[in-house]
């Protein structure tokens, strides 16, 4: 079925994990483009502040304090959307949490808790969204990670949860497509993004964790998410660095292993002391309305790779146009060169003719 999606200015969008990082950046960007929002997260203070910010700027938004690891909370999000706006057109499963540490050191109960949010929370959200979207059409957008393509050390539990997210999303897409449901299912795979993720993650390391470059701004992911809300897209890497890691993992897995072992393990450990173990987003809400984290290196504000992958026709036209422009610039030189070669060939022909005689 050919799925048709509305323009953002006509949409009601549900965003989980809306109080910080990627979710916050997406909410602010969607508001500027005219969408009405249903915001969900555990941080009530941050949600209240964001909703007030949006309404004061002329936008429309409502919020609900919800823990996506609880299915009844996810159902309440959908109910809030129905009560406030009569439903929704796009559902973005963005809520998630991280964890740093060697797998042997991480407590099993913390592994289970991370899965409750990253995997079960996304499953609850997807099924609740599809139940509604199958009737009116729309988009389901799941925020995964590049580590679903290539796991990384010291984030093994998080990596495995995102592998589960990818598998679930791919299977759901095929089933809906087979049934002819008017639902677009997209998987957005961010790389390292400058958000509070390392600060909020449960940390078993002896230092504060940090991103390994390249690192991108949250706006890069928000742009990709909102593109998927208007245009059916199967999946997209938000940031070319993640695509590079995925390709290396696919075509040179041993080389990828060695790179991860030598660069990622050491690069993840900063020279800063860790935060107290109890200060983490796995066990409690952060209440910090912030898109950015504390990454001190270069943060890319855009990704040429992501833009090219989302706009292949325009990119091809741009490349072709550049080629034509270069050709036009070189045409006088080439024409002059061809003319000179023709003259020289003519002279050589006369010489050969003379020899033949």
Nutshell version of this structure?
This protein has 357 residues and is α/β, with parallel strands linked by helices. It has helices at 21-32, 44-56, 71-85, 108-136, 156-179, 197-200, 218-230, 240-251, 253-268, 304-310, 312-356; strands at 12-16, 36-41, 61-65, 90-93, 99-100, 138-143, 183-190, 192-193, 202-203, 215-216, 235-238, 299-300.
* Residues in helices, as a percent range: 40-55%
Distance between the termini: 75 Å
Kindly report the average pLDDT value. 90
**Strand/helix succession:** EHEHEHEEHEHEEHEEHEHHEHH
Fold topology:
Layout: E1 12-16, H1 21-32, E2 36-41, H2 44-56, E3 61-65, H3 71-85, E4 90-93, E5 99-100, H4 108-136, E6 138-143, H5 156-179, E7 183-190, E8 192-193, H6 197-200, E9 202-203, E10 215-216, H7 218-230, E11 235-238, H8 240-251, H9 253-268, E12 299-300, H10 304-310, H11 312-356
Describe it for me?
This protein has helices spanning 21-32, 44-56, 71-85, 108-136, 156-179, 197-200, 218-230, 240-251, 253-268, 304-310, 312-356; strands spanning 12-16, 36-41, 61-65, 90-93, 99-100, 138-143, 183-190, 192-193, 202-203, 215-216, 235-238, 299-300. It has 357 residues and is α/β, with parallel strands linked by helices. The chain has 2 domains: 8-310, NAD(P)-binding Rossmann-like Domain (Rossmann fold), CATH 3.40.50; 312-357. The strands form 3 sheets. It has a 7-stranded parallel beta sheet, with helices on both faces. Strands 8-10-12 form a 3-stranded parallel beta sheet. The protein has a two-stranded parallel ribbon with strand order 5-9. Helix 2 links the parallel strand 2 (36-41) and strand 3 (61-65). The longest helix is centred in the C-terminal third of the chain and has 45 residues, at 312-356.
